[in-house]
Amino acid sequence: MAAHQYDVIVVGARCAGSPTAMLLARRGYRVLLVDRATFPSDTISTHVIHPTGIAALNRWGLLDQLLSTGCPPVGTYAFDFGPFTIAGSPGTDDSPVAYAPRRTVLDKLLVGAAAAAGAEVRGIHRPGHPHRRWPGNRHPRSRPGRPGRL
């Protein structure tokens, strides 16, 4: 028999994987949460948690932790399309604002919540694998003077 047995293995520990692992662990499942990144780490992101996401953080007991980081609320949105702009308030009466934390803040909070709920958190390391780090910090498909594409 294997040394470790899990009911669920969640691959990817960012803003979808960590809450999934946290919620499953809170329900009593044996959860392994794995990611090739280490946390906290940054990633390309819009950095916006819309009001429905804020409501979820509140239900999960994590909103106060986010607020304690000093992340300011976003009370209005404006999408500028050149000839016209769409602007307004994103929220509802129950969840009136959005927040835009850096991913270094958000991911650390969510991974910590998954671990606190009982999920085992591990990094993945494959010897010789570049882990998104390429020579000159460029993607292999990029050419000098041209941005890389994924």
Mean pLDDT, all residues: 82
Level of helix content?
25-40%
Largest sheet: 3 strands, parallel
Would you tell me which CATH topology of the largest domain applies?
Answer: FAD/NAD(P)-binding domain
Which of globular, elongated, flat, extended, rod-shaped describes the shape?
elongated
Counted beta strands: 7
Number of helices: 4
> Which structural category do the helix and sheet elements fall into?
alpha/beta
Low-confidence sequence ranges = 129-150
Task: Specify Rg, calculated over alpha carbons.
Answer: 19 Å
Tally of separate domains: 2
Order of helices and strands: EHEHHEEEEHE
Beta content: 15-25%
Can you identify the CATH superfamily of the largest domain?
FAD/NAD(P)-binding domain
How would you characterize the overall build of this protein?
25% of the residues lie in helices and 17% in strands. The protein has 150 residues and is of the alpha/beta class. The protein folds into two domains: 1-44 and 103-143 and 146-150, FAD/NAD(P)-binding domain (3-Layer(bba) Sandwich); 48-101, no CATH class. The strands form three sheets. Strands 1-2-7 form a three-stranded parallel beta sheet, covered by helices on one side. The termini are far apart.
Outline of this structure?
The protein is α/β, with parallel strands linked by helices. Helix content is 25%, strand content 17%. The model is unreliable at 129-150 (pLDDT under 50).
What structural keywords apply?
single chain; 150 residues; alpha/beta; FAD/NAD(P)-binding domain; 2 domains; two-stranded antiparallel sheet; 25% helix
